[in-house]
């Protein structure tokens, strides 16, 4: 009977015993067996089982287990979870060794490992199991042997963990040393960069100081020349301003003289526009006649004006020169 034909396990249970022997099983129906926690005795003998699934170790309610006359080549590594197991029959299988967790079956009282190709050490420890007493001694000796192996495995694991921790610490130390070297390198680079910038700054300061000293020396060498230029430029500016003023006054006098000449010597003197000019001109002449030098100049100017105003006549015979006449001033 294959696993697929095991449909109703209720037909296989009697009190607390589940009998699945001689069912031609190749796999253990773990899920279905877990539904019967009261079946503490399980008989799987005389089947074609080669391995037990890891889930089989979840059947922690088992007290007696018969796996004799199968084709088992190994037991699950989690077999130590079956802590309530007291009776285990592995007769006539193909086991060569037992998992280290076998040492955790602290309640195991009966064990049969006959007719298995066990490794020599384990076979010597197990001995024969020809009667009840020998099977109990086999269970005790195998548990003690597996505990020794478990201790060795634990020590080896501890050594391995210690070695791994040492390697990890070494790696951490190397990493810290590397980080320290990198920090030191960055620190040196920053210091070198700072020193380079300081030298550049000192060089720039030296250049600026030299330039300032050179300018100061140039100013010290040419103080008199600068003073002379300033001294000469001031009179020159004054002369230029005075010349402009004199030119303006001269132009003004020329303009006034031209206007007076127009109003005195041309036919425009009778115009209303020339009346105030002529009046001011006569007043100026009256004032100037009171002055000796100006009077003589005005007399000459008056004679010349009269001569220009009279029409020209044929030249008469020479006569004695008359006495100089007083200038005639128009009111």
Architecture overview:
This protein has about 325 residues and is mainly alpha-helical. Residues about 1-5 and about 325-330 have low confidence and may be disordered. The protein is rod-shaped. The chain has helices at about 30-35, 120-125, 130-220, 225-265, 275-290, 290-310; strands spanning about 15, 15-20, 40-45, 65, 85-90, 110. Strands 1-2-3-4-5-6 form a 6-stranded mixed sheet. α4 crosses α5 (about 275-290).
Low-confidence stretches: 1-7, 323-331
The amount of helix comes to 40-55%
Strand content: 5-15%
The ordered H/E elements are EEHEEEEHHHHH
Based on Cα principal axes, name the global outline.
rod-shaped
- In whole angstroms, how far apart are the ends? 173 Å
What number is the mean pLDDT?
A: 83
> Which sheet architecture does the biggest sheet show?
6 strands, mixed
Gyration radius from CA atoms, angstroms: 73 Å
Spatial strand order of the main sheet: 1-2-3-4-5-6
Task: Count up the helices.
Answer: 6
Structural class, judged by helices and strands? mainly alpha
Record field, number of beta strands: 6
